[in-house]
Amino acid sequence: MRRGKGRAMSVYEYTKPSEIEKRSMEIIESRLGDIQMLPENKTVLKRVIHTTADFDYVKNLQFSEDAVRHGVEALKNGAHIVTDTSMALAGINKAILRSIGGDVHCFIADPEVAAEAKARGITRSCAAVDHALTLKNELIFAVGNAPTALIRLNELICEHRINPKLVIAVPVGFVNVVEAKEAIMRIGVPYIAAAGNKGGSNVAAAICNALLYMIKRQQ
Question: What is the CA radius of gyration of the chain?
């Protein structure tokens, strides 16, 4: 607040609570300018920037050919999402997902996964990816924290034991993060990836939600 001659003067833009997201998207759109990219990719990018307030994703967010279409079609066909963190699990819009026949899973806290990880001397994230093999649905993997999950997923894809419809590869950090993302981007599956060290569970959830909101708008 500013004060001038005995009265308070607001320096803030008044926005109704119901219009805050809409106004945020307008600001993001104005700052993106005339960026050249597919409209569906831009929709995902804007959702990620809205979540992170980080315009570095203009350069960092990478899409394989038709990645968004593959993800949307899989979700429409009842695909389930597997994520590596409880935070991403909490952030994904489960109401929309379940309304189209899907569901979301995070096995990181599953007692069987914990026991398997301890017995094999591997991370819970690796064991959780193996546990996803028990699911019968088409799968989308949304990895926002553990590069070991991407590394294990890459191994299972190479062994033809799993064929995800989309891999959202956005773990954050420094140890094996870049290498794990680059391996997924080379393997030939549809992907949306955050190149470099940036990412996070909130980014993984934001990308999932961008796809779900596209479907909701089409209904």
Answer: 19
Active-site residue, from 50, 70, 105, 131: 50
What CA–CA distance (Å, rounded) separates 159 from 68? 25
Is the pTM higher than 0.85? yes
Strand partners, 83: 142
What digits encode the pLDDT tens for the residues 137-147?
999 999 999 99
> Both tokens of residue 26?
């307008």
* Nearest CA-CA partner of 47 in 29, 63, 35, 65: 29
Could you read off the pLDDT of 165-187 as tens digits, one per residue?
Answer: 999 999 999 999 999 999 999 99
Q: What DSSP character marks residue 108?
A: T
Q: For the chain, where are the alpha helices, taking DSSP H only?
A: 20-32, 39-52, 57-60, 67-76, 86-91, 94-99, 111-120, 124-131, 147-158, 177-186, 201-218
> In this structure, are residues 50 and 206 in contact, taking their beta carbons and an 8 Å threshold?
yes
Minimal CA–CA distance to 206: which of 31, 35, 57, 26?
A: 57
Q: At what angle do helices 124-131 and 111-120 cross, to 10 degrees?
A: 120
Is 50 designated active site?
yes
